[in-house]
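WARN no homologs supplied; continuing
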Amino acid sequence: MRLHITIIICIAFFGIPASFADEKPELTPPKVGDTAPNWTLQDPKEKEHNLKKLRGKVVFLILGNRKIRKEDDKWAEAFQKDYRENEQVTAYIIADMRSVPGFIPKRFIRGQLKRNPPPVKFLLDWKGEVHKQYQTEKEKPTLYLISQKGTIVFHQKANFKPEIYVALKKEIDKLLAMPDAK
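OK structure emitted
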């Protein structure tokens, strides 16, 4: 009886031992060569976007949060300058919305984004699920370039730098030049 009470007291004060707890495995970020994890998110107009449905296009993902929005926009502006007219390639800023205070209504945020739209399509990751999957960083944008077949071909965590953008652009142009790209 004393043993049971001791175990209960230990659990109450120290928690369930790791060997008994349901531990979630540590997620590792997807890397170059991996198939990009799928996601479905909404834009400010509540239209759904799904990565799997974008197969056949080159997809540039800029994952960030409200504190690094200016850096996200720099990447998006550079992309738009070079690829705005190209229908074979698209870009998204995926915003981690977990840091938005809970008292601010979602409709208010959507309204602000409609009035002041970002340079590329903007998706709202309210629960941070995509950011968890892709293991993003809070201090700088996390970038992924995904091929027409859904494979990651470029990954970088970086504030905007022209030399990194040149490397990204080379990868995009290489994908667009492939004969089976369409």
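The first strand starts at residue 40 and ends at 42.
OK
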